[in-house]
Amino acid sequence: MRNIVISGSASGIGHACLERLEAVGDRVIGIDIRDAEIIADLSTLEGRQRAIDEALKLSGGEIDGLVLSAGVSGMQHPGDFTVSLNYFGSVELFDGLRNAMEGRPNPCAIGLVSNSSQFDIDYEDPMVLALLDGDEDTCREMILELDRGAGYRFAKHALARAIRRRASEWGPLGVRINGIVPGMTETPMVDALQEDPEVGPMLDLLPIPMGRKGNAWEMAGVVKFLLSDDASYIHGMMMWVDGGTDAAIRPDRF
After folding, report:
1. Catalytic residue set
2. 53: Cβ–Cβ under 8 A, 6 or more apart, which residues?
3. What is the CATH number of the domain that holds 200?
4. Ramachandran region of residue 202, left (φ > 0), alpha (ψ -120 to 50) or beta?
5. What pLDDT, in 10s, does the model give residues 117-131?
6. Above 80 in pLDDT, residue 154?
């Protein structure tokens, strides 16, 4: 039986992952601010350390899969909170739990990114570089000067790069790390965004060649695959699961 740790397990994609993995016999250790085996606020340093300590304790120090899906849209929360949760709440758990994955058969860590991670982002933006440098205090100050959706875009962009940067170090240790890049997905977070008078109309303009939103169960299916032996050579990759939106917007870039 594998030990799988999932953040954001109480709702949305994280909860769908919990259900799909438990259905195949995995032992799932959920982390969230409510309705989870580990109650922790990943927007804080103390909450992240608590989550790491409890996950190591409950897993006996042996983790086969790590799925980090905890996050908020950034439209209903201050930008500094969004950056701390969506970026630092993932990268610190990646690094804090990696040792427990070493030596396990086909261990894999997965972060949830977003196809908005490529929207209007300069790869050399000072905010992006501060995130990648791990300077949380500076990031929290800088983001307050930007628009209310910037925290989400910057955090998800930097998260994708943080995952990619870890691939070279983690691979020789026998630990895979990947990201999935959802597009418009039927979750409580997206439902709330569509009700927003400013954001809702913009979301309606996004092209989806498949003609519909995705759903959390589909995203969880991709996570289940990436954790499987069939994906044993997939490492350092961003897997786009967005119904073709990115291909429609950037057909000549990949």
Report:
1. 152
2. none
3. 3.40.50.720
4. alpha
5. 777 778 899 999 999
6. yes
